[in-house]
Amino acid sequence: MAEADPHHLAAAAPLREIVVAGSEALNAALWGATEPFVVRGLVADWPLVEAGRQSGKAARDYLLRFRRDVPFAVSVGEPRGDGRLFYDQTMRMNFRMAHAKLEDVFARIDAEAGNPEAAPLYLASIDIHQFFAGLHEANQVDLGDHSVLASIWMGTRTRIAAHNDFPQNLACVAAGRRRFTLFPPEQFCNLYLGPIDNTPAGRAISMVDFHNPDLDRHPRFAEAMGHALVAELAPGDAIYIPPMWWHHVEGLEPFNVLVNYWWRETPRWMGQPQEALNHAIMTIRDLPQHEKQHWREVFDYYVFNNGDQTVGHIPEEGRSVLAPLTPESAGRIRAFLLRQLSR
């Protein structure tokens, strides 16, 4: 059998699409879902979507009706670039952060419309309730009992490197078009992730340029593309991204708006697994190999294979944090860690 060409990239497969009739059907599809999917036209009746279908300017004018009189954080990319918000050659960010009133940001977009050398502008993960009054009430998805964080993402043509998020994510395109390229969680080793502390937005990102992948430098990316799923969304369409799925996101029009909802099925008091990873890097990663192997076995025993052999010999009333966690026992662990880390 001939060997696979390491420089051949498979085309991403189309993402599965489903049809839902009403909020009950949507929530039934979301509950326990482990695979991503697209729902065409889920928010087609939003007034914001109707404005976005008219033009980017109409969408901006609509949003300004609801904005609060506060500064917004905006990423300003490199002029004459291709909208990729990433690292520069020194591993610093190739964009700067600024703060401005929303009307001033939109005025700059208006003034630079049609200019191919304009710097990309991107307002990322803006809390809708904090920065807008009434926008959520006029444009929202009924997610039942889920406790959600609603955010809005606005900007010119941009490319956001592949990354993942811990919460579940329902993202709705309100204006412009967006292309999502998704990878299952286990493909992280083929995406060539960058630093976990020096990141554009708090999550490690793929170092691969999806528009011009260097397969000599990143040969395993060809394997990742064999598992990739892609969807291009128009105004009114929505995509569900399960926890830890990697996603590369492109804003394809001169002005793009996305509204997304994040939520967790697990209680917030459980904390973030990333915090445990950071702590393990500090305390375990650089130990001698035989000690690292021991701690791997300890983690398997207490964390990954925490069955009856771990606690069966301890009276139930004496298992402390080895028993199923509660808000109280999680609080005791957090307090203990804070005391240890503050030494």
From TrEMBL:
Residues 115-278 form the JmjC domain. It holds the Pfam family Cupin_8. SMART domains: JmjC (SM00558). Gene3D superfamilies: Cupin. It comes from the Bacteria. PANTHER family: HYPOXIA-INDUCIBLE FACTOR 1 ALPHA INHIBITOR-RELATED, HYPOXIA-INDUCIBLE FACTOR 1-ALPHA INHIBITOR. This is JmjC domain-containing protein.
